Recover the amino acids of this structure.
């Protein structure tokens, strides 16, 4: 085996020529989670209970037990998360090489500032490709919206308006169709709580990005942070979900390797 590539990578890390950017929200009791109306079941969010902390229950160790939904915080959506992908891979069956790929970052902050319900349009993808070339094969396509700035404020992050409905940006039906049918992506990622915009419930059928992306065996990443530290192209993204047998997804540590 030729170890030269790994040696070069380690040398570049040591010299500071490659930075590792953490794209992951910390998990805590206040982590925002999507809320579905009755009669649908909801994610319990994140809960932590102390087992021992250098005390009579465990004098030399500290540990907790956790309750956490598969789709809490920064998390990975496996294809079987959606009915269109019900016969496709659960999170434990996703090949590890499918968890690593180039990141194509599309900046739509201006559009989202003007419209929190903004959905990524095909025109934005085409404009990105005109500037940076065709989206590379097996890439993660990430929407840079600035939405993660609200991640410590669940009310602002979920953004329920005077109409009683939430408002956040996401991928449109046309962008999901293009990325799955015309480009060979691994999946898509967003700073918001879901890869579909909050208005996706109004589509017929609803949640078009989930329906199309997972039906095509692709993946999703949500609640990403620090996308402002990634170039439009040139970063390598690593998504590391828990290997939950039969799981529909998992909270994940998502990292990017970025040229220094």
């Amino acid at each position: 085996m030729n170890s030269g590539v790994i040696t070069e990578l380690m040398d570049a890390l040591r010299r500071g020529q490659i930075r590792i950017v953490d794209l992951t929200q910390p998990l805590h009791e206040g982590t925002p989670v999507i809320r579905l109306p009755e009669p649908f079941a909801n994610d319990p969010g994140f809960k932590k209970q102390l087992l021992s902390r250098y005390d009579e229950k465990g004098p030399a160790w500290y540990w907790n037990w956790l309750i956490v939904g598969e789709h809490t915080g920064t998390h990975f959506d496996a294809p079987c998360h959606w009915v269109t992908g019900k016969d496709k891979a659960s999170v434990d069956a996703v090949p590890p090489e499918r968890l690593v790929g180039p990141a194509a970052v599309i900046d739509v902050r201006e559009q989202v500032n003007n419209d929190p319900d903004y959905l990524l349009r095909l025109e934005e993808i085409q404009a990105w490709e005109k500037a940076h070339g065709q989206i590379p094969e097996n890439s993660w396509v990430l929407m840079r919206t600035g939405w993660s700035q609200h991640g410590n404020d669940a009310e602002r992050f979920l953004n329920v308006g005077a109409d009683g409905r939430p408002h956040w940006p996401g991928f449109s039906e046309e962008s999901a169709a293009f990325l799955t049918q015309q480009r060979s992506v691994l999946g898509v990622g967003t700073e918001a709580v879901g890869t579909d915009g909050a208005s996706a419930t109004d589509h017929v059928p609803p949640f078009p990005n989930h329906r199309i992306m997972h039906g095509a065996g692709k993946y999703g990443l949500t609640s990403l942070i620090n996308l402002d530290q990634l170039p439009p192209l040139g970063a390598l993204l690593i998504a590391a979900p828990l290997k939950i047998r039969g799981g529909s997804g998992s909270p994940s540590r998502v990292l990017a390797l970025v040229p220094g």
Summary: The radius of gyration is 19 Å. The helical segments are 4-14, 109-114, 122-132, 154-158, 173-181, 208-215. The chain has a mean pLDDT of 96. The first strand starts at residue 18 and ends at 22.
